[in-house]
Here is the input.
Amino acid sequence: MNPHQVPDREELLDQLRRANRYTWLWIATRLVAIAALVYLIRWDNVVLAPIVSVTACMVILGPFLMSVLRVWGQKKKRIEDIKESTRFGDLDKHKLQSLYSETLRRLKLPDERLPVYVTSDKSLNAGALRLGSLFGRLNGIYLNRQVLHKLRGEEVQSIMGHELGHYYRFNLAGDRFRILTLVLGALVGIFAVQATNLNGFLGFVVLSVVSYGFWTISNLPMMRYGRTIEYLCDDLGAQVQGVEAAISGLLKVGLDAETRTLIHLELLAQHSGNALLSPQDVSDAIDRGTPYGHAAEPELYESIGREIEQKRRANQQTSLTGFLKYIWESDDEDEDDLKERLEMQAKAINQIQRLEWESVLDDPDDIRLTERQAENLVQLILSSPGKYLFRVPEMIGQSDGIHPPIEQRILYLWKNRNLDTELVV
Here is the structure.
């Protein structure tokens, strides 16, 4: 891995400043487009056929609305609403509140009573939402419960700092005017219906293509500057408890993703020929069977196996329903095609040259890097081009294009650890 590919903090801050410098042009362009569409749309037709217009709007806005509904419907609780008796490993609600308050203080961020939610998600991840006043009740920081079980307090603070970076400091200014994008999308949908004058299935196909094009164009700025933002948010998170804690947390996130990937591929391939279990059934059973916190591999497989067997028996009791469900959820992909696809993916994953980074640890079961170990890890990464820390789908081209590989995130944090540049855009 070329060390010169690792960006400097000031370079990234300049990139984001330049991106936000022309926010007024972004806003003006959308306002002009909205005005033009308001003029071109035949509003008498909208009044006469409101269902068609509403359907067109929903097709265009569907991706955004579905993502909002998923957040709204997921199981979550604000930290202050968690029961006194609930514990997350060594943490409870009071310790979490203390960690969050300390994070705000160390980062010199205002305490605006921003909601911090704990979700039931079992992936080692977190998120931040700032959707403006229109969806204000969803604004906040979201910590997956698994994060609290698997990470130490200082690593949780690195995650909190990262997400606070998304919320307060490092974002595209245009995203604050999301309402303009939504209004423009609705008008584009209505105009597309009237311009094409197509009905039925063909009309729906055209609208779907228009929707895809609209959201692709709208997301171009994030695709261009997404990695810049992720690096800077990592950087802010590392300001809370130090680079060593941040890197330790990243290693745990990567290791968890690797474990989940290998389990999914193995069990999906193992049950691909079972007519009573759809791929979705197996995935759901894996999620339900994965416990919160740490589990030895035999116990993990045993827990997941029980969930899969329970689902198989439930489907067997209503075998016709179970079989039809399998056919429906298999997406018309026959067993041979599914198995071949899984085998190809597994082969590609297994061919990734993995860097044995555990060698830098004193205890492979205790990922808690010292400064010396962090430096050794960085040297190991730099001296091993073509090798990766984890076998995950991102390494075989299945990345979202926004989150940098963990190797690069670690190198960035280490390279910029002693800079005096203030993290302000």
Notes: The two ends are 29 Å apart (CA to CA). The first helix runs from residue 9 to 21. Strands lie at 76-78, 116-119, 126-129, 140-144. The chain has three domains: 3-73+177-227, 76-174, 254-350.
